Amino acid sequence: MRATPCAFRDGRRGDCLCALNRHRVPATSILAFSGIALTLLLANALLPSLKLLDLIASLYNFGALVAYMYAALVLYKLSEHIVGNATANRALGLLTLAACALMLALLTVLHEEGRVLAAV
């Protein structure tokens, strides 16, 4: 949930999703993504012939993978400001980003819903 406000913090798009409330929590983003999940789960429960549970799992796996890629990119970019060995932190960020990119490529190539999500 926190990856969306961080990704759109530059103000170019998604202003309502990056807004933080007085507790510094992206409540709008949390409510939006929870609403999407709730809608998909209700549709799956009420219309079992649609088989939406695989799609729901794919959506959340895809979202988590993108969030991990953001975190790896931040680690790479801010490695000189983090306590410890900057070269090791930079290498760890690149290695993590490469591993996530490989998993995303496998998801896109091998999974039917993954191809649909990657096209979006």
Structure commentary:
With 120 residues, the protein is mainly alpha-helical. The chain folds into 2 domains: 1-50; 51-120. It has 6 helices and no strands.
Strand content: under 5%
Unreliable stretches: none
Structural class: mainly alpha
Radius of gyration: 17 Å
Distance between the termini: 19 Å
Number of strands: 0
Tally of domains: 2
Number of helices: 6
Q: How would you describe the oligomerization state of the chains in this entry?
A: single chain
Mean pLDDT over all positions: 77
What is the percent of helical residues?
over 70%
Taken from the alpha-carbon principal axes, the silhouette is flat
Order of helices and strands: HHHHHH
Main sheet record: none
Helix-strand blueprint:
Elements: H1 3-7, H2 15-18, H3 27-46, H4 53-77, H5 86-110, H6 112-119
Helix pairs in contact: 4-5, 5-6
Briefly characterize the structure:
By secondary structure, this protein is mainly alpha-helical. 72% of the residues lie in helices and 0% in strands.
Note the main attributes of this structure.
120 residues, mainly alpha, flat
